[in-house]
Amino acid sequence: MNGKEILLTTLRGGEASRTPWVPFTGVHAASLLGMDAQSYLQDSDAIIRGIETAREAYQADGVPVVFDLQIEAEILGCTLSWAGDAPPSVASHPLSDAEGGEIDDLPEFRTDKGRFPVVLEAVRGLKDRIGGECALYGLICGPFTLALHLRGEDIFLDMFDEEDEVEALLAYCAGVCEEAAEAYLTAGADVIAVVDPMVSQISSDHFTQFIAAPLDRIFARVREKGGLSSLFVCGNATRNIEAMCATGCDNISVDENVDLASLRDQALANGKSFGGNMRLTTVLLMGDEADAAREAVGCLEIGGERSYVLAPGCDLPYDTPQANLKAAARVVQDPYQRDIARQLKATEKKEDYSDVAIPDYSSSDKVIVDVVTLDSATCPPCYYMLKASREAAGEVDAEVEVVEHKIRDREGLAYMQELGVSAIPSICIQGRPAFASLIPDRKKLADAIRAAAKA
After folding, report:
1. Which of 12, 154, 219, 262 is the 20 to 30 A CA-CA neighbour of 400?
2. Which H or E run contains 169?
3. Given a cut of 70, is residue 350 above it in pLDDT?
């Protein structure tokens, strides 16, 4: 079996000759070419070269053509903010109260608009070059995350107060997702990954009420067109894993916030393959080859020999060391390297962050709101949680400082450990965890900040 056959067999729940490996290279592939993310994501030839380079370097069994959850939103009228080392982020919400728009006012979604033609051209080129040996993932922005891009964080209140409007918006977004998925499959993609990170921010009741049916529409269309589907949710989606496994997808993928053994048991019980969970920042970005090898073998031991896909928990950071990804690939493909990694795993040590200064919150003359994120520039739940914190702080009649701590560096990891943060993203107020992996409504957050100011 070649790499593509191994991956597709595993996604279908069959028995493959080894565990498949899918590094979600995203804009990391741009770094391999020495390009910035903005230029790379608008150049089909660059995307083809970047993915070819990444696939060869990391011996990948499957690769995403691009990892950019803003393509659909841009076509529908959202303005974007670009960064040199990350995909763009959404900077405006055409259906927000501030904009006053309606669904009928949105530009027509077509896959020959915006940057979609660039991506589809890259799919066709990669299909010709590596499509026989490596499976191609078409990543689409999931319906709830797309709805949030269009409506803004007010959608969380709408889920209580304007249920019919939320259902109408999600039905519209599901239609957009169906069109995007069909375009990817027609161009040559093998797997459609519906990436919906904002699902980690809602309750299981809301998932069942609002999200499950739109997702099943998309998965049904993918199956009808002969593709395989994955539901990919970054963040602490633990509360929704059972409901996610009840949808019609073929695969569930998660990040390090979700216990891999628990996912394994629930996915297999529902006849689904599963994947992900490699630690993105503490290991793949900031660790070394030994750390990456230990991480890979640890995930392989939990995932088991059937239906598991080894992958990072989200889009790889731009400057992830190549050596770390190559080390993970060796562990997957070489039993001898796995044995070495098992020995290394026994020597793993806890990182010491005592050199990082943490404020004395009790003596501060202002309320300090710490928002611990992966990176608000690249992680939608992180972006919206930070945005909500800043807006809530602006409503409080007290001096409030909102500080983002990205766990892409030691300072962020130190705050995560010292403040007792167990899920990303999280809000801490005066050094105490207040909201974990769940974006609060503005009033509730403002009230919590006011209470801290009076204490």
Report:
1. 154
2. helix 163-187
3. no
